[in-house]
Amino acid sequence: MTRVHPCLRWWWLLVVASVLAIGPTCSDRQARQRGEELFQQNCVVCHEAPNPELKKQLPKLEDLFQSKTLPSGAPATDEQVRNTIIHGIGTMPAFEGRLSDEDVKNLLAYLHQLK
Amino acid sequence: MNLKKLLCLALGCAFLIAACRHGVKTYQLRGQVLDKNPATNEITVNHEEIPGFMPAMTMPYKVKDPAVVMEVEPGDKIAAEVVVQKDGNDYWLEDVRITDESGRKSTPPPAPPRRLTEGERVPNLPLINQDGKTIHLDDFKGKAVLLTFIYTRCPMPNFCPRLSSQFARIHEDLLKNPEIYRKTHLLTVSFDPNYDTAPVLRRYGLAYLDNDPSGFAQWDFASAGPSDLRKLADAFGLIYFEQGNQIAHSMDIVLISPQGKIVKYWATWTTAELEDALRTEATTKPARQTAQAGGMQ
Lengths: 115, 297
Prior knowledge:
The complex is a heterodimer.
Chain A: H1 6-9, H2 11-42, H3 44-47, H4 78-87, H5 101-113
Chain B: H1 3-20, E1 24-37, E2 42-47, E3 57-62, H2 66-71, E4 77-85, E5 91-100, E6 126-129, E7 134-136, E8 144-150, H3 160-175, H4 178-183, E9 184-190, H5 198-208, E10 219-223, H6 226-236, E11 240-243, E12 246-249, E13 253-256, E14 262-266, H7 271-282, H8 286-296
Parallel strand pairs in B: 8-9, 9-10
Antiparallel strand pairs in B: 1-2, 1-4, 2-3, 4-5, 6-7, 6-10, 8-13, 11-12, 13-14
Helix pairs in contact in B: 3-7
């Protein structure tokens, strides 16, 4: 029987640990990237471009999660923002049926990193 | 003319051309023509993303040069310049080039239904308003009515949100003059009845009425069953159809006289133009209205 050095017996543990460590990081980065795409496609046009024709200007979102409350006064939580995106609020239209749960998760991931 | 003078002339011309574009933004569009409407000078284009302006979608666009509408055919792939006024008031296509004719449809699409012309009586179809109450256009006889179509989930600020914002400004202005207020009515009709139920329309309306429900007395937000909605849209020349998870649509505003007849449509407009026309129609002398009515019957 071939003898294996003790360090090499556990090489697979090293691989698993690496995957666990790197995996979520890649996934998070992809989520933020996808979130940024969605942000550019759906949000920028109202939140980042003032339009004097509109009754109300929607707030900028760069520090959305830096405050304890949203511009509406509601707590700045993922659930509250998700609810706002899906059902709309005030003159902001609802995105129900247009953005999937995954889309909203990715958008939230992107909004969290905005400063 | 020496070379130096020629160069100065060319630079001068370039400056003049650049100056003419002042006040607008331009974007490049690439897409496929799905439909055209010479009557409204519009083509409907399924286009790629227009960075900085609009995601990929199907939209009707006005075309600056009417000859283009005659030349392009559904199926053609085109490249064009979208010209947008910086204040967002208006946009249109210029420099439309057909890049590929191979997809051109051999049979022309069916002609869009004929919309009612000025002086014709509007259809008295049932609508359900924001309170869940059935209303008819005839209910507003005796008042000048400004009617438009929207859907509450519209994400394009230059479309439905703009229309509702303009109506809100008109409503606020009319509120200052009780006499005119009583003689006018605003009507916003949704072409997304499955989503835009009465409670949704009420919430939407309140956002544009500063949360004052008394405003519904002068501004109704309504929808209708799919069949009646299609009849109403056809009567007013509105184009709308589902496109992926959005609704592509044209923008239509129509002024209806106190006698229930079409007065005017707008292809381009400002809030002031709409309000002036509404005020004028509400205070038009009966003699002219009678003569007009007699001429149309």
